[in-house]
Amino acid sequence: MIKDCTSVWDSCLRTIRRNVNSQSFKTWFEPIRPVRLSNNALTIQVPNKFFYEWLEEHYVSLLKMTIRQELGENGRLEYQILMGAPVAPTVAKEPVSVRTNSKRSGGIQPGMIDTGNIKNPFVIPGIKKLKIDPQINPTYLFDNFIEGDCNRLARSAGMAIAKKPGGTAFNPLIIFGDVGLGKTHLAQAVGNEVLSSFPNKTVLYVSSEKFTNQIIQSIKNNAVNDFVNFYQLIDVLIVDDIQFLANKTKTQEIFFHIFNQLHQNGKQLILTSDRPPKDLDGMEERLISRFKWGLSADLQAPDLETRMAILESKMSKEGVELPNSVTEFICYNIKNNIRELEGVLVSLIAQSSLNRREIDVTLAKEVIKNFVKQINKEITVDYIQKLVADHFEVPVEKLAGKTRKRSIVIARQLSMYLAKNLTNKSLKAIGENFGGRDHSTVIYSCKAVQDLLDTDMIFKDTVTDLEKKIKLSLNEV
Ligand code: ADP
Ligand code: MG
Fold this sequence. Notes:
Elements: H1 5-19, H2 22-29, E1 33-38, E2 41-46, H3 49-71, E3 76-81, H4 102-106, E4 112-113, E5 130-131, H5 152-163, E6 173-176, H6 183-197, E7 203-207, H7 208-220, H8 224-231, E8 236-240, H9 249-264, E9 268-273, H10 285-291, E10 295-298, H11 304-318, H12 324-333, H13 338-354, H14 361-369, H15 381-392, H16 406-422, H17 427-432, H18 439-455, H19 457-472
Helix pairs in contact: 1-3, 5-6, 7-8, 11-12, 11-13, 12-14, 13-14, 15-16, 16-18, 18-19
The site of adenosine-5'-diphosphate (ADP) has 16 residues, from helix 6 and helix 13.
C-alpha cells in the first residue's frame, strides 16, 4: 500500500492522542498540517517557530517514537514553518453602532499619543505629549511567578507573547482559572515584560468593571467613538475577569468591535476569566467564537511542591525564615488559593511580631483557622491516594484502575496499606476506594507491602516519610 502524508500523519495523531492530555493535544497537535511524504521523511507544517521549538522541547521523544512506528527505523520528521504572523481570520461584517476613524488612529505613533481629539481615560496629566499609563503593577513579573505543572502552558505562552506581542498564534491569549491562582499576575507579567523589551509599545491593563464603567460614561457623554479610538492605540490590551462582561450587551458590542480592530491590526489581546470561554454564559456567541482564535490556557491549583516553592519565594521576599514544619503545615492546608497562602504568611509574621510569639505549627494552626473553614481533621483514603500517587509520580486515578504496571501496583498497594493503618476504615470500605476491589485484595496488598518493608530499607524510608507527611496534615507531629 502506498502511504500518503495525510494517512501517515493521521495514524501518528492516533498514537499521540493516547500519550498526551487533551488540552495539549488540542493546542500543539491539532494545528499541525501534514505537507508531504518523501524518502521516509514526513514534513509537517507548524504555525510558527515557537511552535516548532515547543514541540522539539517537549515532545521530541514521542514524535520520534511515533514516526518510527509509522515509517520504520529510518523515518524522519521535517518541519515547515508558516512564515510571518498568523493571518487573522476574515472578520465578518457585523452591524455595530460605533464607528472608528482609522485614519486618525493610524497616524499616531504607538506609545506617544496626541490627545488633541481623543479622550483618553488613562493619560497621565501634566505633559503635552502624553504616554498612556499602563495601569500595571510593576511587581507582577515572570521572575516571581513560580512555574509548576499547574501553570506551565499559560506561563510559556505568556513568555512567547512577551517576546513577540501580536506575532504568535496565541492571540487572544485567554488565561482562565479559579480565583487566586495567578491570572492577574501572569497577564500583567506579560505586560511588564513587553514594556521593558519594547519601550515604544503601548500596554494597557483594564479590569472588566472599569472597562464597563468607562463605556457607560462614554455613552452618557456621547463619546463612544472617542472611547473606541482610544483603544485602537493599544498594542497589548489586557482585560481582566471578562466573566463580568456577561449579560452586558452594549459593553460586549463595543468590546467586540475593539477586539476585531486590534486583532486585525496584529495587536495583542490578553483576557482572563474565571472559567473556560465555552462556559461563559451571558456572552455573545460571536465573542466566544473570537476567543477561540487564540489559545485558552488554564491555571490549575498548584501541587504541593509548587505551593512550597511559592511560599518560599514569598518568604525570601519578606526576609523571613520559617521552620520547615510550619511551611509544610501551611502548604498542606492551603491548597486552592495562592492569595490565601500569602495571606497566611503575612498574618503569621504580624501575629508573631505583635504578640512576640515564635512562629511554630501551633501559631500557624491558629492563623490558618481564619482562612479555611475546616482544617483537615480526618485522614481520608482519597488524601492518602493523592499523596502516594504524587510521590510515585503516577496519575491518581490509575490507583482505582486495572493497570499492572509495576510503579502503579506499588503505589496502589502502599495506599491500601497506609489506609488500613492510618484510617479507621474497614477493609471493605478501603477496597471500594480502589475501583471496587474486595477486602481480600486489600489484605493481600498489606501483606505484600509488609514483605517489602522487611527487606527493602529504601522502601522503608519512603514509607516512614509518607506516614509522617500524612500525619503532619493532622498536626499530629
Ligand atoms: P487571580 O487573578 O487568578 O485571582 P492573582 O493573580 O491575583 O490571582 O494571584 C493571587 C496572588 O497569588 C498574587 O499575589 C500573585 O502574586 C500570587 N501568585 C499566583 N500565582 C503565583 C505563582 N505561580 N508564583 C508566585 N506567586 C503567585
Ligand atoms: Mg485577578
